[in-house]
Amino acid sequence: MSIFETTLDGYAHSNGLRNVNTYYKVLFAILTMLVSLVSQSPIVPIVIFGTVTALIIFKAKISAKFYLKFMAVPFIFALINFIFMAIFFGVGAPILKLGIFNLAVTVDGFNLGFLLLARIMGGFSCLAFLALTTPMTELFAVFEDIKIPQIVIEIAMLMYRYIFLFLDEATTMYHSQETKLGYSSFKKSYKSLGMLASNLFIKTWMKGEQVYIAMESRCYDGSIRTMGETGSIRNIGARNLILLVLFEVVLSIGTILTGSLSIF
């Protein structure tokens, strides 16, 4: 399997929801993420995370292994925040005394930390849904349609392009070092990693210069045009819009009804 096929962009171009209207997916992701962020109880964000995860794995046909790896970083970040808030924030009766510097996990701190963890995972799953089911070219085209400043779009496009350029160069150099037994021992691994990091900066800088020269030779005038086929917001369809509105209304009602619920 090629490098491209195992990247985020590869899944975005070949998934079960690839041909769904881009505006529909953007509306679903943004509205659902907003509901997750404003929820005062972890119940709704957890439901959102479960629902969106099911859509990604079973409907979009994204590899569960890849998705779990993709979500590992935000989960670790959310877990660190949960632990920090559970120990250092909140008041009330302690539910766990750590025995170090009189630190303890309080009821209020635990509930606040768990709410934050649920919000992060619920919101990030919505972003993952958008990233894994929609090519970035189509998202950039949507940004143009809703009048996001052109300079912001172009910077985002170039950053996205260079992420994969960076990964491709890093992978090629790593495999080259590996075939020369550059990682056969801890000492060699340390040395090889340092060489990779220093050479990677030079190689990506040179590639960037080559890309800019290539763009100028093709009459680059300071603006990059997007050609993603996004469809139209009018082509979403009444049925799909009704389903989206009903889903968001149900989540909103759940947010109101579970606003006073907590773990402890």
From TrEMBL:
InterPro entries: ABC/ECF_trnsptr_transmembrane, Cobalt_transport_CbiQ, ECF_CbiQ. Keywords: Cell membrane, Membrane, Transmembrane, Transmembrane helix. The keyword Metal-binding does not apply. It is found in: Cell membrane. The lineage of its organism: Archaea, Methanobacteriati, Methanobacteriota, Methanomada group, Methanobacteria. This is Cobalt ABC transporter, inner membrane subunit CbiQ. Its main location: membrane. GO terms for cellular component: ATP-binding cassette (ABC) transporter complex. GO terms for biological process: cobalt ion transport. CDD domains: EcfT (cd16914). It comes from the Archaea. It comes from Methanobacterium paludis (strain DSM 25820 / JCM 18151 / SWAN1). It is a multi-pass membrane protein. PANTHER family: COBALT TRANSPORT PROTEIN CBIQ.
